[in-house]
C-alpha cells in the first residue's frame, strides 16, 4: 500500500485505515504527561481507534448513531471521532465554554446516543442535564469520574478487545459500508443570531477540503503543527485534523493556549493555524520589546525590518531580490530574524489565520522576518475553507484565491457565493434553513460581503448582517474601521455603531495585558481599570488612534465619538460566541444607555 492509496480513499474512515498501514511506525501525534511528551505511532493510533470503535459496538452503538463530545482538544477527542465514524456515525462537538443548557441543546438536536467528556467536571454537568437529554444511553469519560451508565475510555477499549474475538472482521466490514455522501461530522455553528445549527459535513466534503489545502500548502510527513483550537470548530476539526490524516503529518496536542510560546520553542512546529488574536499579541510583544531595547539595538531592529519588508514585497510580487538587498537581508537575518524565528521553534513554514480580519502590518511583519503568513477564508458550510493565500500566490490584504473545485461569484448586493465539492449537505433537522443557505442552482450564500480582483484574490469587506446604513443612506462596513482602530495596542475590541444614525460612534475595550502594565507604572499605580480608562492620557491615546483611522476612511465612515468600557466583551456574559465572534445585537442592547449618551451629547 502506498501514499497514493491514502489519497484515493473514498471515505475518511478508509483513509485512516490506510494511513495506519502506510505510515505505520511514523509518529502520528505527541501528548504531554507528568513524565514529559509521549509519542504515538500511526499503528498505535489505529489500534486505539479500532478498540474504541469495537467497544462502542459492544455497548450497543448502532451504525449511524451520533456521539456528542464535550472536552478539550486532546488525542482522545480524535480517537472517539474516528471510532464513531468507523461505525457509520459521527460526532457532534460541544465547545468547552458551552453551558449545560447549551450542551443539552446540541445533544438533543443531534439525537446523540452517547456523550463523551474529558473528566469529572464535565461529566457532572452532563449527568446534571440527563433529564433533558432522553436520547443518551450511556456516557464515556477519558479523564476520570464515575456515575450511572458511565464507562471509562479504557473500559470501552477492553470491551472492544473482547468483542473482536467473536467479530474479527467487523471493524473493516463496517468501514466498507460507509459511503462518500454519508455524514462524517456534525459541526454546530457558533450561533451569533440564534441557536446553533448542526452543519452536516460528508466524507466527500472533508476529503475535498483536504485535497484542496494540500494542493496549495504541500505538507509532508515530517511537518508538525500544534493542536489547540477547539475540535468542535471546523478549523481544527477539518482543516487541521483531517488534513493531517490526508498528509500523514503529526500534531503536538496543547489544550492550554497560555503555553503556546513554550510549546512552540521546545517542539518546533512547522505550521500553526490560529485566530488573529494570538498573532496580534505575539506581534505586540515583539514590537514592545524592540521599542524598549537600547538605542543601538532598536536601530538594528528597525534597519533589519526595513530590509525584510522590502524583500518580502518583492517576493510577494514575484520579483527577484537584487544582490545588494540580498546581502543586507542575509545580515538582517543573522542579526535579528533568526532570533525571532527561534521564539517559535525555528522551523515555521507557514502561519495560517482565518475567522476574522487581521492587520496587514502584522501579516507583512511575519513575511519580512521569514515566517510566511497566509490568510484564508471559509465557513462551516463550505467545510472550513474555500480561499487561501499560499507560496507564490499571496496578496496581503486578501484571503487568497479559490481552492480547486470551487466556483465563486459576487452577487449584485456584494454577497460572496460559493459552489463546489466543499458545500455542505445541509443543516440537520432544518430543511428551511438549508434551502435559504443553498439556492436552487447550488450556490451557497455565505452572508459575507466581498470583492474579487482581476487575479481572483478575494477581499472580505464585512458580514452582510453587520452592514450599517446611516441616516444619510450611506452603507458602512464596520469591520474595516474596527481593524484600523485596533492597531493601537492598548485597544482589544472595537464595535462601531451607527445604523440609521447621523454619525458613527465606537464602543472600545482595553487590553487586560496593557492595562496591567499601565497599572504597575508610576502614573497609574493604585488606580482601578475605570480610573485608568477615564484618565486624560488614555483618553488622548484612544483619540489619536481614532483620528489616525479616520484619515484612512471616507468622511461618512469617520468615528465621531467613543466610550471606553470597563471590561472586555466575554463569552460568559453572552457577548461573544465560543469562536470569539462578537454578538453585536447583544452588545448594542447591553450598552444601549452608553450609546444613547454618546448621541445625546
Low-confidence stretches: none
Number of strands: 26
Query: Would you tell me the structural class of the helices and strands?
Result: alpha/beta
Distance between the termini: 73 Å
Count of discrete domains: 3
DSSP helix fraction: 40-55%
Strands ordered across the widest β-sheet: 7-6-5-3-4-8-9-19
Biggest beta sheet summary? 8 strands, mixed
Strand content: 15-25%
Radius of gyration: 25 Å
DSSP helical segment count: 22
**CATH C-level label of the largest domain:** Alpha Beta
Instruction: Tell me which CATH architecture of the largest domain applies here.
Output: 3-Layer(aba) Sandwich
CATH fold title of the largest domain:
Rossmann fold
Shape: globular
Mean pLDDT: 93
Brief write-up:
With 601 residues, the protein is an alpha/beta fold. α3 (42-58) crosses α4, α13 (295-316) crosses α14 (323-343) and α13 (295-316) crosses α15 (360-368).
Structure write-up:
The chain is built from 22 helices and 26 strands. The protein is α/β, with parallel strands linked by helices. The protein folds into three domains: 3-267, 3-Layer(aba) Sandwich (Rossmann fold); 273-436, no CATH class; 464-600, ANL, C-terminal domain (GMP Synthetase, Chain A, domain 3), CATH 3.30.300. Helix 6 (120-128) links the parallel strand 5 and strand 6. Helix 3 crosses helix 7 (153-166) and helix 9 (203-216) packs across helix 10. The model has no long low-confidence stretch (mean pLDDT 93).
Descriptors:
single chain; about 600 residues; alpha/beta; Rossmann fold; GMP Synthetase, Chain A, domain 3; 8-stranded mixed beta sheet; 5-stranded mixed beta sheet; 26 strands; about 40% helix; globular
Amino acid at each position: 500500500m502506498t501514499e497514493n492509496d491514502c489519497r484515493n480513499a473514498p471515505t475518511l474512515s478508509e483513509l485512516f485505515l490506510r494511513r495506519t498501514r502506510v505510515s505505520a511506525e511514523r509518529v502520528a501525534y505527541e501528548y504531554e504527561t507528568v513524565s514529559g511528551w509521549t509519542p504515538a505511532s500511526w499503528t498505535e493510533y489505529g489500534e486505539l481507534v479500532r478498540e474504541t470503535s469495537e467497544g462502542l459496538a459492544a455497548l450497543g452503538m448502532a451504525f449511524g448513531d451520533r456521539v456528542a463530545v464535550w472536552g478539550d482538544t486532546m488525542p482522545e477527542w480524535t480517537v472517539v471521532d474516528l471510532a464513531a465514524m468507523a461505525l457509520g456515525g459521527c460526532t457532534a462537538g460541544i465547545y468547552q465554554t458551552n453551558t449545560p443548557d447549551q450542551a443539552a441543546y446540541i445533544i438533543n438536536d443531534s439525537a446523540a446516543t452517547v456523550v463523551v467528556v474529558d473528566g469529572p467536571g464535565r461529566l457532572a454537568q452532563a449527568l446534571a442535564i440527563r433529564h433533558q437529554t432522553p436520547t443518551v444511553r450511556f456516557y464515556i469519560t477519558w479523564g476520570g469520574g464515575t456515575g450511572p451508565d458511565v464507562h471509562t475510555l479504557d473500559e470501552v477499549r477492553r470491551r472492544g478487545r473482547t468483542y473482536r474475538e467473536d467479530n474479527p472482521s467487523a471493524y473493516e466490514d463496517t468501514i466498507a459500508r460507509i459511503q462518500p455522501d454519508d455524514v462524517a461530522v456534525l459541526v454546530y455553528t457558533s450561533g451569533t443570531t440564534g441557536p446553533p445549527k448542526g452543519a452536516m459535513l460528508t466524507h466527500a466534503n472533508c476529503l475535498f477540503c483536504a485535497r484542496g489545502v494540500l494542493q496549495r500548502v504541500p505538507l509532508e510527513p515530517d511537518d508538525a503543527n500544534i493542536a489547540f483550537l477547539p475540535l468542535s470548530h471546523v478549523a481544527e476539526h477539518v482543516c487541521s485534523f483531517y488534513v493531517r490524516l490526508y498528509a500523514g503529518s503529526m500534531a503536538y496536542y496543547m489544550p492550554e493556549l497560555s503555553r503556546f510560546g513554550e510549546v512552540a520553542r521546545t517542539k518546533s512546529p512547522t505550521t500553526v493555524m490560529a485566530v488573529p488574536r494570538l498573532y496580534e499579541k505575539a506581534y505586540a510583544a515583539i514590537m514592545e520589546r524592540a521599542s524598549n531595547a537600547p538605542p543601538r539595538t532598536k536601530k538594528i531592529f528597525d534597519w533589519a525590518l526595513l530590509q525584510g519588508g522590502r524583500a518580502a514585497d518583492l517576493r510577494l510580487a514575484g520579483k527577484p531580490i537584487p544582490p545588494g538587498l540580498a546581502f543586507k537581508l542575509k545580515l538582517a537575518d543573522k542579526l535579528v530574524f533568526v532570533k525571532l524565528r527561534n521564539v517559535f521553534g525555528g522551523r515555521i513554514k507557514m502561519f495560517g489565520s482565518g475567522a476574522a480580519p487581521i492587520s496587514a502590518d502584522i501579516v507583512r511583519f511575519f513575511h519580512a522576518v521569514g515566517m510566511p503568513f497566509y490568510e484564508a477564508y471559509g465557513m462551516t458550510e463550505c467545510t472550513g475553507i474555500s480561499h487561501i493565500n499560499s507560496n507564490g500566490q499571496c496578496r496581503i490584504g486578501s484571503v487568497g484565491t479559490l481552492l480547486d473545485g470551487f466556483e465563486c461569484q459576487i452577487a449584485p448586493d456584494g454577497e460572496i457565493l460559493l459552489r463546489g465539492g466543499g458545500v455542505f449537505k445541509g443543516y440537520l433537522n432544518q430543511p428551511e434553513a438549508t434551502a435559504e443557505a443553498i439556492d436552487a442552482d447550488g450556490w451557497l450564500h455565505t452572508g459575507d460581503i466581498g470583492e474579487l480582483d482581476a487575479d481572483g484574490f478575494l477581499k472580505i469587506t464585512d458580514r452582510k448582517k453587520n452592514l450599517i446604513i446611516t441616516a444619510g443612506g450611506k452603507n458602512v462596513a464596520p469591520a474595516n474601521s474596527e481593524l484600523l482602530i485596533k492597531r493601537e495596542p492598548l485597544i482589544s475590541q472595537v464595535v462601531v455603531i451607527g445604523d440609521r444614525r447621523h454619525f458613527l460612534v465606537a464602543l472600545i475595550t482595553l487590553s487586560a495585558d496593557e492595562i496591567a502594565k499601565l497599572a504597575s507604572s508610576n502614573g497609574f499605580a493604585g488606580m482601578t481599570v475605570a480610573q485608568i480608562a477615564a484618565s486624560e492620557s488614555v483618553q488622548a491615546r484612544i483619540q489619536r488612534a481614532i483620528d489616525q483611522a479616520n484619515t484612512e476612511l471616507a468622511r461618512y465612515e469617520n468615528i465621531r465619538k467613543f466610550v471606553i468600557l470597563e471590561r472586555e466583551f466575554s463569552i460568559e456574559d453572552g457577548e461573544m460566541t465560543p469562536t470569539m465572534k462578537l454578538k453585536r445585537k447583544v452588545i448594542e442592547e447591553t450598552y444601549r444607555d452608553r450609546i444613547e449618551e454618546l448621541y445625546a451629547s
